Fold this sequence. Notes:
The protein is mainly alpha-helical.
Amino acid sequence: MGATTAHRSTPELLTLHAVRLKGMANDAEVAARFALERAESDELLLDYEAFGWVTRGEFAGTSGWALTSAGRGEDERRLAEELDATGATSAVLDAYRRFLPLNGRLLAACTNWQLKPTPNDALASNDHSDVAWDQRVLAELATLGEELDAVAEALGLHLERFQGYDVRYRKALIRALNGEAGWVARPRADSCHTVWMELHEDLLATLRVERGTNV
C-alpha cells in the first residue's frame, strides 16, 4: 500500500483559521500563514467581515484582522467537521497528550531566557551575561525541538495544515544559537515561543478544548 496523503484544508477554512492562530494579522500575514493566494484570502476576509466573523482592530500599535466570538465558533465548527471527516481525531488527541508535558518545559525555558533571579530580585531581567545560564536554556530548547519533531510529524501525516511547525521552530532555534537572542521569545516574530504557542492554539482549537485541559 502507498503512503496516505495528508488532508489539505480548504482555503475558506485556512483563511479563517490563520486569523485564529495569529491572534491579530494583516492581509499579507493571513495569506502567508498557509501559503494562500493573496487575492483569494483577501476576498474571503472581506466576506468574513460581512458575516461578523472577523473584525479589523488595533492593539499595542499593531493593527489587523482578529476573530470575533462568532468567528471563533465558526472556526471550531469547521475544524470539528474536518476532523470527523478525515478520521484524524485519535491522532490529534495522541499528539496533544504528548505535547502537554512539553509545554510546561517550554514556558519555563522562555521564562529563564527572559529572567534571571538574583538574591535581591526574583524577577530580575536576564542580561545574557551569564553564558552558562543561557547555554542551559538553549540546550533545553534544542531538546524540546527534537521532541516537537515527533509530534509535528504525527500530526502532519493526517492534516497538512499541521505541517511545518517543526521546521519553523528549528529555524528560530538556529538563529538563537547563532547569537540572535530575540529569536527565543520575541513577539510578532516567528520565534521559538511564537511557533510553539501557535501549535498549542491549533491543537486546542482543533479539539475544542480549553487551555490547560487534560483529555
